[in-house]
Structure formats: structure tokens, C-alpha cells
Amino acid sequence: MAQALPPQRFPSNALAFFGLTTFAITWGIVGGYILFPEPAEATFGTMSGRHPLYFVATWAPAISGIALVLAYTGRSGLKAFLSRALMWRCPVAWWLFIIFGIPAIFIAGSLVKGGPVLAPLPPNGTGAMVALLAMMLFLGPVEEFGWRGVAQPLLQRHLAPLWAGALIGTFWGLWHLPAFFLAGVVFADWNFLPFFIGNVTLAILVTPIFNAARGSIMLPILFHWQLINPFWPDAQPWDTWILVAVAFIVIGLNHKTMLSRDGAVTEVIPEAPQPTSPGQSGQTR
């Protein structure tokens, strides 16, 4: 079994492999259906949001990130990396924002455009909506093992959190682009520009949460899950503009930490606690 390297040894240049692999997987799958629709459908079936290949395309950031962790740190490093998905400690304000703030933004955007407070229930009722909500947890939120699990810490070694988040958001938005030309998925009915601006905004918004939670992947996963919660109404494009306004407020309130790399999370593999001796007070290095 490969030996786990010290956290600081996880190389920054791994970011290039992460980006190339993530785009190759997603754009390869989606591009195949766009450029060669008939052979792709004949071979793999009609593409939809429930197709196995759609899940693979969506999970590409996580697949790339986990492959890198295994390559550089082995199974012991992967175990430590996955432990970040169990890190829940974070200032209460951020928990309140994820649980109540994000739904409020969607509801407000929907009301502005004359829409409902909640999304209409499907013909099968609430049970079907709950099942869809559960499925969504294993779709988009899994991306966070790549975007926030690997890309964010590596970028924050060289950029202030604000710019690291904005750069991830830019690539995150562009990564979605082929899906807007793919029939059978929700993106086909959306406008790309507000979506792209929304991706950059959301990546900036989740950045102070990520750092406040000391590299937690759990908080970004829950943040992402709220964004695709089927109970929240369609508020495009107003939700995007409200999110932009909220992002400016968050940046203003957290400008010291957003514009400085001091205190930013920069390690992909969390540092293991050191054993304590009777004369120590339980501190870790």
C-alpha cells in the first residue's frame, strides 16, 4: 500500500491534472451525445437526468479529486480526506444561512417574478418530491469532493480566498456549458449567462463557509444540496441577482479573511493529531 505523504507534500501542480480530467470526463460524455446523438443513444440509451452516464459526468470533479488523493497519498490519505465530509463545526450564522437563507433567496426571487412560494408538487405527490430530493443529494453535491475538496485548498495556497472562489466559479460555470446543448436535461431550458454569473457568485459565497469550517466538505455539500432542492421554486433569473447582492454583502462583512490568505485552508489532507504525553495538554501540531 502506498505511504501517505505529509499534508504539505500534496503538490499544487496536481490542480492541472484535476482540471483536465474533470473537463475530459464531462465534456467527453456530454459531447458524445451532442455531436453523435444517434450512435450515442443507440449504444447507451437516451440521455436524461437519471441516466448512469449523467451521474458519471456530474461526478467528474469528485472522480478526478479522489483519483489524485489516491495517487499521491494512498488509501490512508483517502481515509483522512473523506473525514472532511464529517466536519460539521462552523459558526452558527453560516448554518442559518444554508438552512434558511438560501431557501429565502429562491422564494424571494420567485415572488418577484410572480411565481409560487414553493415548487408545485408532481402528480405523484410529496413522496415523489422527497425521493427526488434524496436523489439530488447524490448528484450535484458529490462534485464538492473535487471543487472544495481539492481545487479550493490548492488554489488558496497562491490566491486570496475571494479570487480562488471566483476562479473555481468560472471553471465551474464553463464546465457546465455543454449541458446547455443537451436535450433531456434541465439545463436545456435555462439561459447560460445568468447561470454562469450564478456559478461564480455561489463559488464566492461558499468560500467563507468552507474556510470558517476549516476545510469541511460537509458544509459545501449541504450548501450545494440546497441550491438544487426541488421544493424551492424556479426563480431564474432573479435568484441570481439576489445572490449577487448577497455576495457583495458577505464580501463586505468578511473582507479581511476573503482578501488575505492568512488562515485560509490550504491542505487537501487534514493534518493528523499528534499523540500526547502526560506533560502535554492535548494540543496538535
**Strand content range:** under 5%
Contiguous runs where pLDDT drops below 50 for at least 5 residues? 1-8, 274-285
Shape: globular
What is the overall pLDDT average?
90
Distance between the termini: 26 Å
Report helical residue fraction: 55-70%
The helix/strand order is HHHHHHHHHHHH
Our Rg estimate from Cα atoms comes to 20 Å
Biggest pleated sheet: none
What is the oligomer described by this structure? single chain
Structural class: mainly alpha
Number of strands: 0
Q: Please tally the helical runs, counting DSSP H or I stretches of 4 or more residues.
A: 12
Task: Explain what the structure shows.
It is a single chain. The chain is 60% helix and 0% strand. It has 285 residues and is an all-alpha fold.
Q: Keyphrases for this structure?
A:
285 residues, mainly alpha, 12 helices, globular
Write the layout of secondary structure elements.
Layout: H1 14-35, H2 37-44, H3 52-58, H4 60-82, H5 92-112, H6 126-137, H7 144-155, H8 161-176, H9 192-212, H10 218-227, H11 238-253, H12 255-258
Précis, in short:
This protein is an all-alpha fold.
